[in-house]
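Slide 14.
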Amino acid sequence: MPVPTIKYYVRERLLPAGELTSPNQAEYGPGHERRLRLIRVLLEVGGLSLATIGEVLKATDDPAQPVLKVLGAAAKGVTPLEEGESGPELEQAREDVAELLRRRDWRVSAGTTAAESLAGVISALRRVGHGGLVDLIEEYADAAESVARADIGYVQRRVAREDLVESVVVGTVLGEAMFGALRRLAHEDVSFRLYEGLGGGAGEAPAGGGGPAGAPDGVEGAGGAGAPGA
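Slide 15: predicted structure.
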């Protein structure tokens, strides 16, 4: 990573300053390298802005905050918010989301941005004439609940506070990318079996390729977090 970039991150308080070894040189250790990798992944793969990354890292670095509050702040910081146009459609979508939460007995914090994000998406789907996709929300919720249990199971295996918080942040951002890539791969497979397979060419699909094209961009979407060494 270029030295000017590291200095910029230090100035923006995204990265702790290194230990001065001379008036114009500083030494950076494994902790700095880990933080640089995290910033890079959140920025390049997660698509978060530096301002959002700064808010998440600030909550992460505050030892005075209880872990549960830090986890909430971290998750909230990386939750994308889809803003819908205000009006009756958005209000109806908010009511639909509230009903979904009651129906599934999901316990979430009041005013969570994820609920508002979902309402915005539902409103947008209806505006563009694809409200039928909203009818599948229970199937999406089933899948989301299953993935959430897997996510939390991973988080519970982390012991150190830094590891715990970081796993929530990384898991939320990169988990979205991984799930999205898997969904695209599954789309290719299901489409192949439903349509191209009807022509008798089902045996032509490459094994493990996720469909006839091998879904190269889908794979990159999940594994693009290579994060070159700092």
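Speaker note: The beta strands are 19-22, 25-27.
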